Amino acid sequence: MPLPVRKALTHLRAADPVMAGVIERVGACRAGVRDEGTHFGAVLRSIVYQQLSGKAAGTIHGRVLALFGGQEPAPRALLAMDDAALRGAGLSGQKVKYVKDLSARALSRDFPIERLHELDDAAVIETLTAVKGVGRWTAQMFLMFRLGRPDVLPDLDLGIQKGIQRAYGLRRLPTPEQVLRRGKPWAPYRTIASWYLWRLLDLPTE
After folding, report:
1. What is the Cα 134 distance to its own chain's centre?
2. Among the options 16, 151, 155, 157, which is catalytic?
3. Whole-prediction pTM value?
4. Which pLDDT tens digit goes with each residue over 112-133?
5. Does 205 fall in a domain?
6. What is the number of structural domains in the chain?
7. Which of 81, 84, 192, 200 is deepest in the core (most CB within 10 A)?
8. Cis peptide leading into 73, omega within 30 of 0?
9. Contact (CB, 8 A) for 98 and 64
10. From the centroid of its chain, how far is CA 9?
11. Are residues 57 and 101 in the same domain?
12. Residue of 110, 64, 120 lying closest to 90 (CA atoms)
């Protein structure tokens, strides 16, 4: 489902004059949803990308897919893949454990990996964070950019904290609690507000 950008911009501009200024500076919203492939493949990609630069992560992700003929692997195939081969593709030993845990859970009937879009936001976070190596931030990114949920505010994200600090001229980084308080007026479109805060950091300081 695409993000409701037009409605979000109308609401954000009216609800918060500072956010209206951020929108003016950043320009058109290009936030999109990555909906190709399966939910399993999307979580696998998130694990691979953790704590790596985009270019390095993309290279490793491509090598992992190459082990499966260049295609997104099925959980059973990934679980059966030799650990040494996955490490050879560039995954750390820890991430090998993470993707194997994801695969094992995906094969369980109790883990609704391909029905996550049917769950509410809180249930998606609860389900995904049961996987080793998947924290709340990763689950929130899944909600925002896989499922297209419009009202997610990743309060633990350093970029969001820095964006708020710059937008509002704060002397210190806001705490996660302060991020949530500051973001209340943006609901129910906090995903779009978050995108604008990230993009604000790409612009030169005034």
Report:
1. 11
2. 157
3. 0.89
4. 999 999 999 999 999 999 999 9
5. no
6. 2
7. 192
8. no
9. no
10. 21
11. yes
12. 64
Instruction: Compute how many other C-beta atoms are within 10 angstroms of the C-beta atom of residue 187.
Output: 13
Quick one: tokens of 199? 């993009």
Residues 6 or more apart whose Cβ sits within 8 Å of residue 25: 200, 203
Give the Cα-Cα-Cα angle 187, 201, 180 (nearest 5 degrees): 30
Q: How many residues does the chain have?
A: 206
Structure tokens at 87: 């490490």
Mean pLDDT within 151-167: 95
Q: Give the CATH number of the domain where residue 25 resides.
A: 1.10.1670.40
Question: Which tens digit of pLDDT belongs to each residue from 82-116?
Answer: 999 999 999 999 999 999 999 999 999 889 999 99
Instruction: Using the predicted structure, report yes or no on whether residue 139 has a pLDDT greater than 90.
Output: yes
* Residue whose tokens read 């710059």: 166
Identify the domain containing residue 11 by its residue range: 5-32+152-200
Structure-token pair, residue 116: 């996550």
Would you call 83 a catalytic residue per the annotation? Answer: no
